[in-house]
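Please fill in the sequence for the structure shown.

STRUCTURE ENCODING:
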């Protein structure tokens, strides 16, 4: 049973969502302000955080920033419907995904399961290499570990999934739709910039190539490719 932390100042809504998640097999604890959310998220007792943006004392984006300074725990942001700024800020601060409010509990459950499924270490399959090496990048997918030029690389679960997909296809273009399916576990929605924001974050962590170009190249109208060294 996965332990879910729900951080939302709407007590009635939180109770309804927690009840639904409980029926779906999750153990849920709800808190109702950002400061309490940070404290509980960093306790080590939870597998994933569902974090509302609009809250008193400490809003969701600020809370996420504090969480990310100390933890890679998966975080799904709840954002106002149509508020692109909150979504992009959340992703830039390290959220793994977002769900616009109001949302159906079924959609939230699907997002939670997708993120958890892709953030857990897995047993290596015999037909898939356990170690991925592309230039300065080393990945151990079964352990969810990454190194860049021999130094540990700090990635969110979604960033790891994106980088793994690009690395396994190094030298080839991977569409944004394919990256969304494989890294976020959902189809790419129209006007959805999640993949772009995550790729931008990964680029910052990798820096530039010796020739001054980016390691992850944008192929206009097609997608992204990791450049082979």
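FILLED IN BY: designer on duty
SEQUENCE:
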């Amino acid at each position: 049973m996965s332990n879910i932390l729900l951080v939302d100042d709407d007590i009635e809504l939180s109770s309804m969502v927690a009840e639904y998640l409980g029926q779906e097999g999750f153990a849920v604890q709800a808190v109702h302000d950002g400061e309490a959310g940070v404290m509980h998220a960093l306790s080590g007792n939870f597998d994933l955080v569902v974090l509302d943006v609009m809250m008193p004392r400490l809003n969701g984006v600020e809370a996420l920033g504090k969480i990310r300074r100390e933890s890679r725990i998966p975080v799904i942001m709840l954002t106002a419907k149509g508020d692109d700024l909150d979504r992009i800020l959340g992703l830039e601060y390290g959220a793994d995904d977002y769900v616009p409010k109001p949302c159906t509990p079924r959609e939230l459950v699907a997002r939670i399961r997708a993120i958890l499924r892709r953030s857990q270490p897995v047993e290596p399959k015999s037909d898939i290499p356990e170690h991925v090496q592309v230039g300065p990048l080393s990945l151990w997918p079964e352990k969810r570990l990454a190194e860049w030029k021999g130094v540990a690389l700090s990635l969110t679960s979604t960033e790891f999934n994106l980088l793994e997909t690009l690395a396994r296809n190094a030298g080839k273009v991977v569409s944004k739709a394919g990256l969304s399916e494989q890294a976020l576990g959902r189809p790419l929605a129209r006007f959805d910039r999640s993949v772009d924001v995550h790729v931008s974050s990964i680029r910052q962590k990798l820096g530039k190539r010796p020739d001054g170009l980016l390691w992850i190249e944008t192929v206009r109208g097609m997608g992204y490719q990791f450049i082979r060294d």
